[in-house]
Amino acid sequence: MRISEPTVVASLAEMNVELQHGAALAELTSLGIGGTTDLLRIKKHESLPDLLNLLDAHHIPHKFLGGGSNLLVGDGELPWAVLQLVRPEPHVVLDGNFAHVDAAADLGRMITFCAKNDLGGMEGLIGVPGTVGGALRMNAGAYGMQIGSHVRQVKLYRAATRKLETLRGHQISFEYRHTSFAPDDMMLSVILELPSKPFKLILEGIRICNEKRRSSQPLGQKSAGCIFKNPPGDSAGRLIDELGLKGLSVGDARVSDRHANFFVNAGQASAKDMLALIADVRERVQKNFGVELENEVVVWNA
Ligand code: EPU
């Protein structure tokens, strides 16, 4: 999708939105897969309602990108523009046990910053890549912790009302890798309430989780984390492993040798390769165990 109409380009500049032509989504996603499109980098939350009205008025389809770490994007020229928030500095402001965090903040950096200020509760999430907004939308979790447990308030752009809104924690439902946000709502900022804990103790928790993660997940390779959600009471990784599918490949898309629910881009994998691998594994699990695996990874395919 190319934005070339002069009136649109001029309006974007007025809104302080940076237009980057032909951005490679492969460079903006942890899988290293994805075609090209125009990228709109948003510097001020307040410009969102006008920006989205402008895009709608000119029939420019769009999608909202967080940190790109749980995302599989299609190949080639993509049929929608991509919107991304620019991370402000500072990205976290503390007020007692409350952390006011921008959605564009890096999740790991935010957890570390809070830890240094003796605020814990999210040690398990330290190795989860991506932004705070992305973690919120999916209710990211690991090692018995989930971000939703700490959310007290969320500011977002609501697609349904086309306005910036503020929701209290109790107005949002956070479930296993699922929230009540609509798919095209855009997370803007959040207030988290975190328990006080000495930095040393938090560090110890972080160290333990890091070790567990290092020993069981392919951290150095290009992946989107777990591809499938765990079926109730079981582990997708265990089921795939039991079928002997570690190492199964389509082109350079490959089931990790370390953790069978991580599919890695071992070179120049295309989205087509990765989607074929996902379909193949899903079918085999269905056939052998009667379990229909649901994607955890978000797929943007034309
Ligand atoms: N297992 C295997 N073979 C494998 C992988 C796992 O036999 O290839 C077995 C393990 O030995 C263990 C069980 O399956 O007995 C569970 O494995 P693990 O502890 O690695 O947890 P998981 O259920 O596979 C979940 C989350 C991860 C999160 C870890 C740690 C999902 C889909 N996955 O994985 O989250 O990091 O627990 O809390 O919920 C993600 O969301 O992208 C993700 C990676």
Keywords for this structure?
four-stranded mixed beta sheet, 19 strands, alpha+beta, globular, binds uridine-diphosphate-2(N-acetylglucosaminyl) butyric acid
Task: Please describe what this structure looks like.
The protein has 7 helices and 19 strands. Helix content is 26%, strand content 27%. A hairpin with a 4-residue loop joins β10 (151-158) and β11. The chain has a 5-stranded antiparallel beta sheet, with helices on one face. It has 302 residues and is an alpha+beta fold. Uridine-diphosphate-2(N-acetylglucosaminyl) butyric acid binds next to β15 and α6. Uridine-diphosphate-2(N-acetylglucosaminyl) butyric acid is lined by residues 142-143, 216, 225-226, 229-230, 235-238, 241, 259-261, 296.
Distance between the termini: 11 Å
For the secondary structure, the number of strands is 19
List low-confidence stretches: none
**Mean pLDDT, as a whole number?**
97
| Helix fraction by DSSP (H/I, runs of at least 4) | 25-40%
> Given the structure, what is the number of helices?
7
Distinct bound molecules: uridine-diphosphate-2(N-acetylglucosaminyl) butyric acid
Structural class: alpha+beta
Query: Mind describing the biggest β-sheet?
Result: 5 strands, antiparallel
